[in-house]
Design a protein that fits this description.
The chain has helices at residues 28-53, 57-71, 79-110, 116-134, 137-146, 160-199, 207-221, 224-234. It is an all-alpha fold and 237 residues long. The longest helix is centred in the last third of the chain and has 40 residues, at 160-199. The radius of gyration is 29 Å and the shape is elongated. The termini are far apart.
Length: 237
């Protein structure tokens, strides 16, 4: 007997079935590994925010943005160049901090000499030391008072949840102070050019078109990038 074949019938395709649930694990270690992977993915998703907020990136990128506005060059240098320069300067400034974290927390943890909790504490100490040096006492006292904490005796008594916002507002204030100093000479050039054009009756000519070459010439002759980048980097040393 020949098998009954249906040449016109469509093939049956079996699709896989996925399910997500909470079941009791036979091995407790499997649950611990799953939680560690979940926490690791959470930290990786927050890594850009951590890089921006607890490093020198905030001050650098604000100063570079204010410089571009003061020069009046619109989108030059482009945003990609500004962010890239800020990132690499951040890596350069934070390199000693990362080295301390690697030596005191990461390598001992990979060698299984310390646990998770101790590794996090060791990693937080160099970062707290860096932020504490750049934080104003006034800003730190503000958040200590808001949190209703006792006056800390040393850096170890300051919770990192209090130190981080204090560091951020200190960085923003410092960046705006540097930006103000950058704005003044370029603002004077704009005022002089606008006054000359008005006295000559050239009211239809935008002053920015005339003042831009003079501002660029001043910035280049003063070796502005050397002075600005050197001041930013030395401000964290």
């Amino acid at each position: 007997m020949m098998p009954n074949c249906s040449w016109g019938a469509e093939p049956v395709i079996s699709t896989p079935f996925f399910s997500v649930g909470l079941d009791s694990a036979e091995q407790p270690g499997a649950t611990t590994v799953g939680l560690q992977i979940f926490l690791l993915m959470t930290v990786l998703s927050l890594a850009p925010a951590i890089l921006i907020m607890v490093t020198s990136f905030t001050r650098i990128v604000i100063v570079l943005s204010l410089l571009r506005r003061a020069l009046g060059t619109m989108q030059m240098p482009p945003n990609q160049v500004m962010i890239g320069l800020a990132l690499f300067l951040t890596f350069f400034i934070m390199a000693p901090v990362w080295h301390k974290i690697d030596q005191s927390a990461l390598q001992p943890y990979l060698d299984k000499k310390i646990g998770n909790q101790q590794a996090l504490q060791n990693a937080a100490e160099p970062l707290k030391e860096f932020m504490f040096k750049q934080t104003r006492k006034k800003d730190l006292a503000l958040f200590v008072d808001i949190a209703k904490l006792e006056r800390p005796k040393n850096i170890t008594d300051i919770p990192i949840t209090v130190l981080i916002p204090s560091f951020i507002i200190s960085e923003v204030k410092t960046a705006f102070q540097i930006g103000l100093l950058l704005y003044v000479p370029f603002l004077i050039i704009d005022m002089v050019v606008a006054s000359v054009l008005l006295s000559m009756g050239m009211m239809m000519l935008p002053p920015i078109m005339v003042s831009l070459p003079f501002k660029l010439m001043l910035f280049v002759l003063a070796d502005g990038w050397y002075l600005l980048v050197g001041s930013l980097v030395k401000g964290f040393v």
